[in-house]
Amino acid sequence: MKKGKNGYESPDWDDRYRKGFYDEADDPHDLLMRHGHLFKDRHVADIAMGSGRDALYLASQGIRVTGLERSREGLRLARETMSARGLSIEMVQGDAARLPFRRGSFQGVIVFYFLLREIARDIAAILEGGGILMYETFLKSDHEVDHPRNPAFLLDEGELPSLFPGFEPIHYDEGVRSHKGRMRSTAQLVARKT
Questions:
Q1: What is the pTM (predicted TM-score) of this model?
Q2: DSSP string across 64-112
Q3: Which of 43, 85, 112, 114 gives 20 to 30 Å between its CA and that of 161?
């Protein structure tokens, strides 16, 4: 890990994947399991897809998926799992800070546990009108229930919907959730672009 400008350590994502940091992160996120049906017959982008847990789930449901990930190691793991399961996902190595997709390229976008406020407009732009956005990430109150995280990548209460004006909420919730024995304070948004 390297120290960032704000004094917090910046993870070496390839190293984390190599060392098995995310080995138990193979099931799709609960939010996707509950609302994944909204992506039927849509082309979905998985932004910061990691090792592909959610993209692989969508592909297993017959949904066309394009995953974006900067970590070569994360993509390698996704390719291995994809091959073992006989699935197909288009994978793009790239930095989510500079989305490499054209406006209106997708009918669905999913983002889990990744936050760069400055690209919210870009995320909205790659989604065509009527498209579905699914987003879940940490709240600042996560410090109280889990380990300290860089506050630059944590949401204020009520902030997530405000990053996507012009979207009609289908589901919005903030709260503390348990995942594999760990507590997390998160915001969840499922919304349709109007």
A1: 0.88
A2: EEEEEES-HHHHHHHHHHHHHHT---EEEE--GGG----TT-EEEEEEE
A3: 43
